[in-house]
Fold this protein.
Amino acid sequence: MKVTYYGHSCFMVEVNGEKLLFDPFITPNELAREIDISTIQPDYILVSHGHADHVADLETIANSSNATVVCSFELEAWLHSKDIKNTHSMNHGGEWTFDFGVVKCVAAVHSSSLPDGTYGGNPLGFVIRSDEGAFYFAGDTAVTLDMQLIPRTNKIDFAFLPIGSNYTMGIDDAVVAAEFIKCDRIVPMHYNTFDWIKIDIEEAKRKFNVAGDELIVLNIGETREI
Ligand code: NI
Ligand code: MN
């Protein structure tokens, strides 16, 4: 699948010709200054939770693209209040078949409120399954024992895991998460954007390599076949 990195936890993944955008946070990101969000035209926007570093550009891109926003029930209500009506709400444990494949919502241990203080519902992780393969987008989360359930029903080809610590799991726990989901190709996210989540990416690569995993580090703006 073709994967483009827009910084922090924001990625575009092409699945069966459909463009899926995850957690749009670009314009406030100092590291993503070269990205022009008017060029980002997804078919779907999947939002893990309501924190500003995951929804900053959600309204703008949802309006410009008319993409279907997949998110929690509470985040959907917030979008409806802003007249963004093309939405599909889900919650932990649920699956839905879209035209590109199946989305399964899995648990994320975190919190979720919108920038204006509105309650955002449960924070979500997503497993995407299609005839092109399957991947896991963890969202913001700690490592959880629940992650061991994911490979029972989905063979994960690659996974987006946060590694920045402080607000989410850090490098060592992400190595454990990779083991839990039985996936050896990990794309790191949620690191270096802010002072509190700065990490040594070379150290991260070494630790994943020692565990037998490949850490696939994308530069901001880079597109790669994964
Ligand atoms: Ni968060
Ligand atoms: Mn975050």
Summary: Residues 51, 53-54, 140, 167, 190 surround manganese (II) ion (ligand 2) (CB under 6 Å). The radius of gyration is 16 Å. Helices lie at 52-55, 58-65, 73-81, 150-153, 171-180, 201-210.
